[in-house]
Amino acid sequence: MKARKSIIKPLMLLLALPLASTAADTHGDSTQGKAHFNYWCAPCHAAGPGHPGTQSLTVKYRGSVPAELEQRKDLTAALLTSAVRQGILSMPPFRKTEVSDAQLADLIAYLTTR
Amino acid sequence: MALPPGVSEADFAAALTDFRAAVGDEWVFTSDEDIALYRDAYSPYWGEGEERLASAAVAPATVEQVQAVVRAANARRVPLYPISTGRNLAYGGSAPVYSGSVVLDLKRMNRVIEVNERSAYALVEPGVSYFDLYNYITEHNLDVWIDPPDPGWGSVIGNALDGGGGWTAAPFRDHFLVHCGMEVVLGDGDIVRTGMGAAPHAQTWQQNRWGYGPWVDGLFRQSNMGVVTKMGFWLMPRPEAFLSATVQVFNDRDIIPLFDILNLLENQHVINGSTGVFPGFGPNAAAWNLQLPIYGPANVITAQMDYAQAKFETIDGCRFIRNELIRTPLSAEDRARVRLVNFGIPDLSTFGMLGRTEQSPNPAGGHIGFSPIIPRTGEGLLEYRDFFRDNAAEVSGGENLGIIGPVFMTNWERSLVALIMFPISKDATANGKIRAAFRKWVTLAAERGWHEYRAPAVFQNDVAESYSFNDHALQRMREKIKDAIDPNGIISAGRYGVWPKHLRDA
Lengths: 114, 506
Ligand SMILES: Cc1cc2nc3c(=O)[nH]c(=O)nc-3n(C[C@H](O)[C@H](O)[C@H](O)COP(=O)(O)OP(=O)(O)OC[C@H]3O[C@@H](n4cnc5c(N)ncnc54)[C@H](O)[C@@H]3O)c2cc1C
Prior knowledge:
By secondary structure, chain A is mainly alpha-helical.
């Protein structure tokens, strides 16, 4: 894990400028992704009451898919990238000073390989 | 990428080159898609010509980098708009007030410099969120509480600078009030420390707010006089326990003695928690419910509650319902049933009111608030309630625009804020109606002497205009100060209605 990351991180720095929107195509680290999820997403997307994302998705999907993002099997890099960079309903987008492209790739690795 | 107004392409390019030299290429954002991340997700002008948009963004990591960026911007007259965590949703998000400004994004300056348990204070950088400060305190096992606002991802500094507030005990709920000492980069790149911070060897920056001589910290609240790079805050030592009660009264006009007693108890510091006043609904409901929380040592607050109960029970028919005492740190069971922010624990549960619910499966998504300060008396409250009821239909042009209110907020000592909430969506027609209604409330309320304490960026001029004593003498004085300490007017032009000279004349 460690060795792979040290190669990928500098690579992504190079790619980040001209190809910012292709974060989804690069390979992230799902362990890091879980940590980013806990910090940035879990306050809204964890299980149980008091989590606005989970609450909203319960009503949106009415059980056709799980309301908790971490339980979903159908999340794609495209959906995650668009939610994080464009926002959706009351969820505002995240700036790159909050979730960098490399961190978004980590989040995608975590949420799409479950 | 748009150019900042009045700045030539060559000057802007030169400024961007200097920014890159200062912070590194990676932290200067100029592509359309990166700049779009700075849009206000709850903008009342979303997608319309008047939406406030950045021309670029730059994200320094140190005070020296902030100084370098400010100097470069000042040299080329490039307008800057500093944000801390930029989560100012409902008040402008991370977008500038003046379109074309370069957002100075301080999120990367995220060091907790010190939390001192013995003297109960913290010194932080702008990018430190309530979550970050809470995590730091927890990891270091320190026995102090923070006072979070509802959204825990906001900046301890940014929230205080915008006039924000939280939900534990007084005085800690008023975030600017309990700050102690600032470090500020001025428009020419010079750096100032306020209070005891101006004394080079003092170890008391966070222990005395005033320092010596004229106090200037207030100049940086809801303001554009400088870029704040550090700020100290007094913290509350963890209280041993929390005790609350609900007071119910059954006649509409009982709100008058209810407030008189509440004010007395708060001004005596018998009640220190964040109280709430709500009307009852339904046939046998109370006319008014008052929530009454106290923080402190268990036996002391029990005695305080006895004292409060005796006072309220002088109102005819009053019911006084006491809740169980809650001890801290919270047990897992208590943690699952309380409102966390009342216990110094940050979360984001407040966004539940903007997402989908069974009652509202297709909500607007965003919101803004109109929050005037009204007299803190029962008479004041009744007058405002009736004013809202009598004007609501006409202000909304006979339509149901989803405007709700008033919510009476007693969280600041001595003040009563009467909040009206407006839904904001991505639909220009709906937002246009909301804007018209908002402006009407500003005007109608001002006629009665009710003026806002804080306003969404796009309405800041309207509200500033209403503070007009002696031909806007206060505003004129602020403009003189602005012109003196930021002569090129590069910092946060237009914020809270204060514009630099070249834009006032234009
Ligand atoms: C559902 C909901 C509930 C809310 N509840 C609350 C609440 O309980 N209490 C409350 O106070 N607010 C509340 N808000 C409003 C807002 O979200 C918070 O106040 C939030 O903390 C502000 O964003 P921020 O902390 O990221 O500040 P920022 O966005 O970083 O800063 C706010 C403004 O201050 C200025 N500023 C920031 N940093 C600097 C600096 N270093 N130097 C110079 N100027 C600076 C800028 O003009 C900036 O636009 C709520 C909003 C919503 C949508």
